[in-house]
Amino acid sequence: MLEPADRQRFERMVMPHQDAAFNLARWLLRSRADAEDVTQEAMVRAFRFIGSFHGVDARAWLLQIVRNACYTWLEKNRRTDLMTEFDETIHLQPTQSPEAAAVASNERERLMKALETLPARSREVLVLRELEGCSYKEIATITSIPIGTVMSTLARARDGLKRVLSPSTTRDASGKEVHRDV
């Protein structure tokens, strides 16, 4: 059982970051239901171990717990997602026909689908930086990767998104990029 002071500390320091935790899990797992389960598991783990947390950045600590829980879940349930590295020939294929893409005018939906095409590590770093506003140092801490790798992964992820979302680039039937003159 937790001490009342630890319970209050958890509510004050960790609970405000529950949405960020779910957001990261959602993007890593690509499933709302799985993300809810893993986020709940991570919150329980954070609750149990709040007494041993002596840092100042509870958000980064929680996101690291969530990330680890997501990768553990992926290893048990979808091992192939962990093995996939970024490959432009695979990850930049359109997910729908040009006609369907023209019909889908919602930019948010386009962005979400474009994010889904990125491999887990690229998606994770991009979500932490752009959607959660984490610094490079925080991302390096959360993901346990060197800051230089964070920066290069982020650059590749942004380039991948630009290619997928670029209105001047389409793909022909064979998957090759075709640049339209604008």
Mean pLDDT reading: 81
Q: Enumerate the strands of the largest sheet in spatial order, edge to edge or round the barrel.
A: 1-2
Give me the number of helical elements: 11
Oligomer: single chain
CATH C-level class of the largest domain is: Mainly Alpha
- The fourth-level CATH homologous superfamily of the largest domain is Winged helix-like DNA-binding domain superfamily/Winged helix DNA-binding domain
State the helicity in percent bands.
Answer: 55-70%
Query: Within the CATH hierarchy, at the fold level, what is the topology of the largest domain?
Result: Arc Repressor Mutant, subunit A
| Beta-strand content | under 5%
Q: What labels describe this entry?
A:
2 strands; single chain; mainly alpha; two-stranded antiparallel ribbon; 182 residues; Rna Polymerase Sigma Factor, Chain: A
Describe this structure in words.
- The chain is mainly α.
- The chain has two domains: 1-83, RNA polymerase sigma factor, region 2, helix turn helix motif (Rna Polymerase Sigma Factor, Chain: A), CATH 1.10.1740; 85-182, Arc Repressor Mutant, subunit A.
- It contains eleven helices and two strands.
- A two-stranded antiparallel ribbon has the order 1-2.
- Strand 1 and strand 2 form a beta hairpin.
- Helix 2 packs across helix 3 (32-49) and helix 2 runs parallel beside helix 4 (58-77).
- Mean pLDDT is 81; it is low at 86-94 and 100-105.
